[in-house]
């Protein structure tokens, strides 16, 4: 059981890293927004569509699965 959970956990880790790396950048501003705090982007939020929406959902699912598998591994290893 422990080996199966560990294998699933490692696969989920790799998929989660890939999902995070594939997400498009949230802003297309230059370094000046980092200095000014990016206040101009405060009200320009838009809903994610297409590829962005799919990647957000997949990343959320992989993140939740990461924590569930981590807790399951802790439980199995302690018993």
UniProtKB/TrEMBL annotation:
Membrane topology (UniProt): Multi-pass membrane protein
Localization of this protein: Cell membrane
One Pfam family here: SecG
UniProt keywords, alphabetically: Cell membrane, Membrane, Protein transport, Translocation, Transmembrane, Transmembrane helix, Transport
Key word Zinc present: no
Membrane-crossing residue ranges in chain numbering: 6-25, 53-76
Signal peptide extent: none
Protein family according to the UniProt entry: Belongs to the SecG family.
NCBIfam families reported for this sequence: secG (TIGR00810)
Job of this protein: Involved in protein export. Participates in an early event of protein translocation.
Protein name: Protein-export membrane protein SecG
Gene: secG
């Amino acid at each position: 059981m422990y080996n199966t959970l560990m294998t699933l956990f490692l696969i989920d880790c790799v998929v989660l890293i890939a999902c995070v790396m594939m997400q498009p950048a949230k802003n297309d501003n230059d370094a000046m927004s980092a200095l000014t705090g990016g206040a101009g982007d405060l009200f320009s939020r838009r809903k994610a569509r297409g590829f962005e929406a799919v990647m957000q959902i997949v990343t959320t699912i992989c993140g939740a699965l990461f924590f569930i598998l981590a807790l399951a591994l802790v439980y199995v290893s302690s018993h």
